[in-house]
Every structure is written in structure tokens, then in C-alpha cells.
Prior knowledge:
- The chain is an alpha/beta fold.
- The protein has one domain: P-loop containing nucleotide triphosphate hydrolases (Rossmann fold, 3-Layer(aba) Sandwich), CATH 3.40.50.300.
- It has 13 helices and 9 strands.
- It has helices spanning 16-20, 35-48, 82-94, 97-105, 107-115, 119-131, 145-161, 165-179, 194-210, 238-245, 255-269, 271-274, 301-315; strands at 4-7, 24-29, 53-58, 68-72, 75-80, 137-141, 184-191, 217-223, 280-284.
- It has a 9-stranded mixed beta sheet with strand order 1-9-8-7-2-6-3-5-4, with helices on both faces.
Amino acid sequence: MDALSSHRSSPSLPTLKEILNRPLLFVEGKGGVGKTVLAQSIAHALAAKNRSTLLVSIENPLLPAGELKKIASNLWHLNCDPTTAFEEYASLKIGVAALTRIFLQNKLMRYLGKAAPGVHEVVILGKIWHDRKDYDHVVVDMPSMGYGITMFQSTANFAKLFRGGPIHRDSEAMLKTFADPAQTGQLIVSLAEEMPLTESLELRDYLNGFFPDNAPGFLVNRRFPKPEILEDSDVGSNESSRDYEKGHTPLATSALDYLTQRFLLEDHNMRLWRNQKIPYGEIGYIPPAARSSGDVKSEPAIQKTISRVSALLAEKGYV
């Protein structure tokens, strides 16, 4: 099996290639499924095509708040935080530097900017929405599933709460952009495990509720390869698992036995998507890259993994 392959069952749903090549891409899913590495890999692959690309992190505590930094040719990284975004939004709307300073120094405004429900989420998405016009592509590494849903819900709430003025107009415009499949893509990432696969379907339902005309794409990450011993079997059927289990204990007795059992379990779990005829991309398991002992100039292990995944995405024609 290739490290990256694609499964498609319905012509009415977007392909992975269609999703990844949209101007604005939100990479979403349950925490721990590899969203960050995938978002970075997609951004690097797009930048390698000579397209100006912005990779967005949401409130990364390890980086300076609001930092915009060029990290590679055609590729910039933004650590988006609500405080900086709120100040930029106020400056944009007021338009006069002196008045903006007075507004931001007002204690009530500073309190509302930090404490008002939904403000953080709206200004973060607003910053991303506004800056998208400066790049060919914007790839957003979204926070874990619950908070990601809250960001879209807060924007919808503000659009309904304010019946006029700039906040209402901007919230409406943001939602219109996010709902437009020509402008925005939603990529749901999962592992081939039952819980994240199930939660990915719940996330799909939430996103379809917000954006009914903009179906999300799906990608399963770190999929174990099909061992040669199963090449002639009907993988995806219960018989293939039962045939292998005959004469084998639940506890793996060798590396090949573990690989086979793991693959069969993951293939069984994938029925959750297959039964709903969901088209999905697949990235195979990539062993962690080792760093040479004592080689301080070698590329960090995580960057090696990003480079490998990025190359695979380009090799398969997804970007």
C-alpha cells in the first residue's frame, strides 16, 4: 500500500485534491490525530508550488503572541492570538491612530475585549478572514474539535446578535466566505481508531449545520500498511479477520503478527466511514525520523516528518 492513497465512493462529495487546493483551508479533528503536522505539511507543499502561503496557529503558547514570520520560501507563519487581533480590528475600524489608542486604553473596552463571550473566537477568525486576501493560500491548524466548533458558533451568534454595524456585517461576510466551496475548505483528520472516527462524524454534522453547501473532506492519518500475508484476502470483510485469527493468539507473537492484527483492526474501524460512503484520503504510518547522534546541524526529526508528508502530498497530486 502506498503511504498516501485515496478512497472515493460518491461523485457528489469533494475530492481531497479539491479541498486542499482551496484558498482558505481549516484543518480540524480530535486532539492527537496529527492535525498540526498535516497542516504544516500541506502549507509546505503549497508553498513549494510557488504559491504564497500563510500557515496559521491558534494561540501557540510557545511562540510570541501575534508573531508573523517567514519560515520558508513563499511560506509565512502566524501565531494568531485574540489580543493582537482585537487591537488590529479596532485600528482597522476606527482608522485614526490617536482615537484607536484612546479606545484600547479604556478599561471597559479592555475588559470587554477579554471577557465578553465569543469575542476571542470572532476576532481570531476575523483576523484569518481579513489576512487571506494577502496570500494565495491560508492553512489554519485549528484547535481541538470542541473549541473549533465554538469558533464558528460564536461567529454565527454575533451575526444574529448584532442586527447592524460593522460587527454584524463582518460576521455575515465571514460566514459567507466559510460557506463558499470556491473559497473555503474544511479538512477533517482522524486516526483509524473507533473513537476519533466516530467523533469525526459528529464534527461533520456540526460543520454541515453551519455550512450545508460546503461539505468537508476527510483524511485518515498514520494508517498501518497492508502486510503481504493479506494481499490475496478480501480485506474489509469479517471473513479476512476470522481467517487470520485461526491459529493466532490475541497477543502478537512477532512484528509481522502485530502489523497484521493492527491492520485488520484499523480496516474494521474504517467501516464507520465506508458504510456512509465517505470519500477519504489516507496517509500511511511514517516511522519517526531519527536524528543522528551528535549532529547538531541535522534537520529536527519533526521537520523531517513534515518534509516527507509534504513530498507525498505533492507526489500524489493533491496539491
